[in-house]
C-alpha cells in the first residue's frame, strides 16, 4: 500500500496551517496514498510558549477538519501532533488517527516528554507546560497494524519492541527533531528501530523554517525492515511517497528469524498498561 508523509511548512496562523494541510492530504490521496501522515505540531509553532495558546479539546476545530478530510478522501489519516490537547486542566502533545469513515481510531499522547539540555546548543523542557501520556497506541488497517509514537518516543527502544510484539508492522513517529539532534540521531534512530524489530519505520517532520524560534530538521523518512532508507525528504515543504511491501517484511523475518530466537527465558520487555 502507498504511504504519504506530508512535510508541512507551519506558520503562526492555525487556520492557514489547517487549510494547507487538508489540501496536501487531498493531493496525496489523488496520488494513490491509502495512509497519510502529518507532522508533529502541524497546526501551531513548536515551543512551550505556544502550547497553551493553540490548545484545543478533542473533538475540536482541528480534529473535526481532519475527520472530514479523511472521510472525503476515504483514507487513514494520522494527524501528527494534531494539537496541544487540553483535557481536565492539563495539556498533552497528542496525535489523532482517523479512518476512511471519519471515525477517530486512536489518540496517542506523547509518552516521553522532551526535556533535554545540550550545553551551548539546545535546552528545551516540554514538561514546563505538558503532561505525559500513559498508554501505547495502535490501530488496525486492512493492510497492517500500525504503532504510534511522537518524536522523543522514538528514542525508547522498549516502546518499539512492544509494538512489534503486539503485531505492528509499521511504526509512525510524527516528530520535530532540531538542528542539533536531527543530523546526529534522526535517521540513526529510525534505522535502529526498524532493524531491531524487523518492521517499517516512518517519521514525518515539519518543513524547516530558519526564522522560527525552534528550527526543525525536516528530512521526513521511511526505513524498511532491512534498515534501508527507501524514501527521504530534504528540508523544504514536500510530500514523500513510498510503497510499503509487506511481502518483503515477511521475507526478511524468515531469512533472519530473530523474533523467534529471542531468549525469553533470560530476558523480556513487557507492557504494563
TrEMBL record:
CDD domains: nit (cd07572). One of its GO terms (cellular component) is mitochondrion. Belongs to the carbon-nitrogen hydrolase superfamily. NIT1/NIT2 family. Pfam families: CN_hydrolase. SUPFAM superfamilies: Carbon-nitrogen hydrolase. InterPro entries: C-N_Hydrolase, C-N_Hydrolase_sf, Nit1/2_C-N_Hydrolase. It comes from the Eukaryota. PROSITE patterns: CN_HYDROLASE (PS50263). Its EC number is 3.5.1.3. The keyword Hydrolase applies. One of its GO terms (molecular function) is omega-amidase activity. It catalyses: 2-oxoglutaramate + H2O = 2-oxoglutarate + NH4(+); 2-oxosuccinamate + H2O = oxaloacetate + NH4(+). Residues 1-246 form the CN hydrolase domain. One of its GO terms (biological process) is asparagine metabolic process. This is omega-amidase. Keywords: Hydrolase.
Amino acid at each position: 500500500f502507498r504511504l504519504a508523509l506530508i512535510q508541512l511548512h507551519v506558520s503562526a496562523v492555525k487556520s492557514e496551517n489547517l487549510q494547507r494541510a487538508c489540501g496536501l492530504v487531498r493531493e496525496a490521496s489523488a496520488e494513490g496514498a491509502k495512509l497519510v501522515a502529518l507532522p508533529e505540531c502541524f497546526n501551531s509553532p513548536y515551543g512551550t510558549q505556544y502550547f497553551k495558546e493553540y490548545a484545543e479539546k478533542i473533538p475540536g476545530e482541528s480534529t473535526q477538519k481532519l475527520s472530514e478530510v479523511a472521510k472525503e478522501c476515504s483514507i487513514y489519516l494520522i494527524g501528527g501532533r494534531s494539537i496541544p490537547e487540553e483535557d481536565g486542566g492539563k495539556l498533552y502533545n497528542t496525535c489523532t488517527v482517523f479512518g476512511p469513515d471519519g471515525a477517530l481510531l486512536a489518540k496517542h499522547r506523547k509518552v516521553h516528554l522532551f526535556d533535554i539540555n545540550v550545553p551551548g546548543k539546545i535546552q528545551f523542557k516540554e514538561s514546563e507546560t505538558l503532561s505525559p501520556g500513559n498508554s501505547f497506541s495502535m490501530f488496525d488497517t486492512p493492510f497492517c497494524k500500525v504503532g504510534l509514537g511522537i518524536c522523543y518516543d522514538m528514542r525508547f527502544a522498549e516502546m518499539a519492541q512492544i509494538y512489534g510484539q503486539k503485531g505492528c508492522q509499521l511504526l509512525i513517529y510524527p516528530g520535530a527533531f532540531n538542528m542539533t539532534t536531527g543530523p546526529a540521531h534522526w535517521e540513526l534512530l529510525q534505522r535502529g528501530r526498524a532493524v531491531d524489530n524487523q518492521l517499517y519505520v516512518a517519521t514525518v517532520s515539519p518543513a524547516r523554517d530558519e526564522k522560527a524560534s525552534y528550527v526543525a530538521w525536516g528530512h521526513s523518512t521511511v526505513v524498511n525492515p532491512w534498515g534501508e532508507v527507501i524514501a527521504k525528504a530534504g528540508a523544504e515543504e514536500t510530500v514523500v511517497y513510498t510503497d510499503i511491501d509487506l511481502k518483503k517484511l515477511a521475507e526478511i523475518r524468515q531469512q533472519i528469524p530473530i523474533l523467534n530466537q529471542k531468549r525469553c527465558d533470560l530476558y523480556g520487555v513487557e507492557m504494563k498498561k
